[in-house]
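Title: Prediction job returns without error message
Component: structure pipeline
Severity: low
Priority: P3
Assignee: unassigned

Description:
Job completed but the reporter wants confirmation the result is attached to the right record. Sequence as submitted:
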Amino acid sequence: MGPATALAWALLVLAAAAALGLLILIGGLARMFARAPRLAECSEAAAPLAAPSLTVVVPAYNEAANIAACLTSLLRSEEPGGDWRVLLVDDGSTDATRAIAQEAALACGATEPRFTVLKAGPRPAGERWVGKNWACSRAMEQVDSDWVLFVDADVRLQPATLRRALAQAGADGADLLSLAPRLSCGCLAEWMVQPIMASLLGLGFPIEAANDPASPVAFAAGPFMLFRRETYAAIGGHRALAAEVVEDLALARRIKAGGHRLRYLLGLDALELRMYADFSALWEGWTKNWLLGLDGSVAKALGAAGVVLLLFSGPWLLTPAAALAAALLPAQRPLLLAALALALVGIGLQLVLRLWTRRQFQVPLTLWWLMGAGGLVVAAIGPVSVWRTLSGRGWTWKGRSLA
């Protein structure tokens, strides 16, 4: 086999693999989400036997851009059914997070005890605390309610969300109820990367298996985690996971390992999440989590990055390559035209994936044609995450070292 023939076959095989992989991805997501449980309307879930008390904990570090909208959505929530309050934990912010939060609460007419601000204070000397674990642990020193809900500052809730979530948790006998939010994109980097990440998360952490007590699969979405307080204390809470970077997965696994009830539901109509304001924040966030989210396996982290490169960037790179080769190598034209056709099919399947995502998650088609560039970014995130996590160099969250 000559070099020209080898090139033609290589392009054909890669294009076919990308198209087949996208078909498998779309089919897997469609089957999974067709069976995925969703947060019920209050009329669909049995009301708890007694009105439960609730504390909503919002850990915040330099969240000046997000905190007002988050707190406003919380404090203007419909009454969830019992005594409830919002506790903001300022984790040493150096911006105007605390002042903006107090202004937002005042605008909502919320004063103590409905709304309280707690300073997390410095972490204990000689102990390794990462992420929001310290802030959440400090908050729990003041929580005595039946339920505690941890909400990230970049989340926006619908007015009925608290009431619906408490009713669902009570009806299901849940010890941890977590909701998958609707992703909101607002910058170019997010439009390139987030739809890809949402697809990978949906397939990588099957919702049906996560809800099956007999399955070892455990998953929870950190932006919205509603715990029965007694169960949270029984598994050790955030204090037992002080050094865990991906604490939501760790907490979900502890819930299941302890024989407790985990419920992970779609909450697309209940809450919205805007994760990153720009490319820098997106790059820091995903390189922080990629390796650990894949069980700390270097092979999985690099393999997943390679698959993303093939599925999402491959068709866009193979299309001009096959077209050019077909023009220059007439003897191999039939193979190269087949490769070109399959590459175009791959691009079409990416559009199908985004159409499906729009229907399921209400994510617009905005800049869908940049998924090829997004694939390059995600493919780069994999090895960078491996390097940063293993070496500790540049492994940060909001500028704070995680090493």
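Comment from assignee: result matches the submitted record. Residues 44-49 have pLDDT under 50 and may be disordered.
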